[in-house]
Write a structure and sequence with these properties.
Radius of gyration of chain A: 26 Å
Shape of chain A: elongated
Strand order of the largest sheet of chain A: 2-1-3-4-11
Structural class of chain A: alpha/beta
Oligomer: homodimer
Number of domains of chain A: 3
Order of helices and strands of chain A: HHHHEHEHEEEHEHEHHEHEEHEEE
Strand content of chain A: 5-15%
Number of strands of chain A: 13
Helix content of chain A: 40-55%
Chain lengths: ~350, ~350
DNA sequence: TCCGGGCGATTAATCGTTTAATCAGGTCCC
DNA sequence: GGGACCTGATTAAACGATTAATCGCCCGGA
């Protein structure tokens, strides 16, 4: 590969072989009619020069930038690394780049950053909407990753089924009083997870749900969740909707002298990267982000490229998963060290 | 703002006002010679149509895309959200978008993803290099964020000074045996942090350094760090180089029945988002990512735009901070609940 | 009256790629 | 021998924005 100061373009190759730029373009894209030997020569010098088509010219001509936007409600979300990595990887495989945008938790900002992405010419947008947000109709295809109970959702983890896994696990361990710990009752994701849990808690097993934000509104942020009292009431399993809350519950229990998992079990959700970095390592529910990202990106790119091929006008708005893909990706249970059968106290 | 199906362009505005596209362009950019009243009319209809210059045409003509690349050694790094958010914000303020790339910890991949970004036409690259990587000379300006002891570093947190803060804090609390817990002795960042700590540990205070990766190589991943033995040896303070390791140390101590902060203090580094989400909340060192990002982006954009203005040929390779900016951004101590004076055991 | 010059706007070229339309030349068949 | 047809290539236009060069016009001074 030559190392020129400026990147080679079609006309350089054309001049070198004394052919027209159109022929070079045809040869490299395989679209027009070019003799095999000439096409070979062209491909050879192209790779010799290290030619890659300039995105600017192509975008101008074709109207497509091969860039997707990724919109997150809050980029500081600890789940973000997994998501960004998976989306970037899936997009790269499909030949797309990923432009990030952060709405910083602000609802108004969410539409603003989407507009900024569109102004930059992205071909489509992957969005993890902020709680309770309706995505207004923008002029481009959108893939929504949230929860199957969100209208317009494209794909998401099967939070309900994940909740079922948690409940089944704890019940099968022999727990008979399970405390479900949610954060915000307005979250579709959390409601799905909790709904799934409840659906698999048999009648003979007691359960109760508490919401952290409500507790904190009544007291102060970072207040005690009162788990020691719940433990004394007989709860031996504490099922949270997020690893973050599981860690909080875990440290609160340990701080009260309640051992985990001997006296009490704790479960999380999401399998954040650090969830296995401490002792006892968290039992949690893992989501298959690569699969979710692939479905979202496939749906998006097919909508985009379908459009371009298209007799039909562009299809803006939320996209559906491809026929052979599902909207809900199963979650898996990761049993580590915070769950065990309850110690049988003398009856 | 009209809501057309296709985005307005210069010629639409020109046709509407019966002027040439050049005049419209001049009026909007304020460069050519246009009468005030015509310029006003043009600006009015432009904003009425919701015109924003298309990036493709502009990029093609000017050779600049107003997009920066952000390269991370491992996007799954828990520090990534803060970094990405800060860079994205700083870039957006400067009128640039941010394209992400993830080298997935692979050194060879690092140069590959940089090339992919360049092929996409980014104007510059912000990179957090993988340990021990030399950034080969690419044809574009690069801002390197690592540590001041890294050659070619553009800007970074003052890890050394952060280490000093930790040591001063622990020493002032009265600790006289401090265990420093590092992960990988090849990391410039970790060495800086530990060097800073040692530089502020007076002779009368004992200290010792252990490396997690070495311990794990000798035993197994996730093995005990042997902190209970260290505690019995008299160590009362455990200073780690990362919140991740602090959490590990904290849970190991708690699991051994050693109370924090009453019997032992633990400190982290980086102030990860979840560091305050559990009890006892971590005492840690916070880095001013927004400031770092601003310096990096400013240096990058000024190199880019200096080039364009330029008589001089483009300045590829690592950029320096602007004259009024510094290379090392001070870190701050965040005292929470894991640090306190050591309990005086009966002598 | 004629020329120089400033102002306000237009013309035209350019960036790199794609693609529809066209063209030159050869082959085949009636 | 002359159209029909196929093949392999070229020509030219187009995408949208920027910008150097140009042009017409009016005004002032000689």
């Amino acid at each position: 590969m030559h190392s020129n100061r400026t990147r080679p373009n079609l006309s350089q190759i054309a001049a070198l072989l004394d052919v027209s730029v159109a022929t070079v373009s045809n040869a490299l894209s395989g679209k027009g009619r070019v003799s095999n030997e000439l096409a070979d020569k062209i491909r050879a010098t192209a790779s010799d020069l290290g030619y890659v088509p300039g995105t600017a010219g192509r975008a101008l001509r074709t109207g497509r930038s091969y860039v997707l936007g990724l919109v997150l409600p809050d980029i500081a979300n600890p789940l973000f690394p997994q998501i960004a990595q998976a989306i970037e990887h899936a997009a790269a495989k499909a030949g797309y780049g990923v432009l990030i945008a952060d709405s910083r938790g602000d609802v108004a900002m969410q539409t603003e950053v989407i507009n900024r992405l569109l102004e930059r010419g992205v071909d489509g947008v992957v969005i993890l909407p902020r709680r309770g947000t309706r995505i207004s109709d923008i002029g481009s295809p959108i893939a929504v990753i949230d929860s199957s109970s969100t209208p317009g959702n494209t794909v998401s983890a099967d939070h309900w089924q994940g909740g079922q896994l948690v409940a089944e696990h704890l019940v099968s361990l022999g727990h008979s009083k399970i405390l479900i710990i949610g954060n915000n009752p307005d979250s579709n994701v959390q409601n799905d997870r909790i709904g799934g849990m409840k659906s698999r808690i048999p009648a003979k097993v007691q359960s109760e749900t508490i919401w952290i934000e409500r507790l904190e509104a009544a007291a102060h942020v970072g207040c005690s969740l009162g788990l020691d009292r719940k433990f004394k009431e007989g709860f031996t399993a504490f099922a949270t909707v997020s690893d973050l809350h599981a860690l909080r519950a875990l440290t609160e229990l340990l701080g009260c002298g309640i051992t985990v998992p001997e006296q009490a079990s704790v479960t999380g959700f999401d399998d954040l990267t650090w969830s296995s970095a401490f002792r006892p390592a968290l039992t949690t529910i893992h989501m298959d982000m690569p699969a979710i990202a692939k479905i979202a990106v496939d749906a998006l790119t097919s909508a985009i490229e379908g459009n371009a091929a298209g007799d039909t006008p562009p299809t803006p708005g939320p996209v559906r998963p491809l026929p052979d893909a599902c909207e809900s990706v199963p979650m898996t249970l990761v049993v580590r060290q915070t769950s065990a059968p309850p110690r049988l106290t003398a009856a």
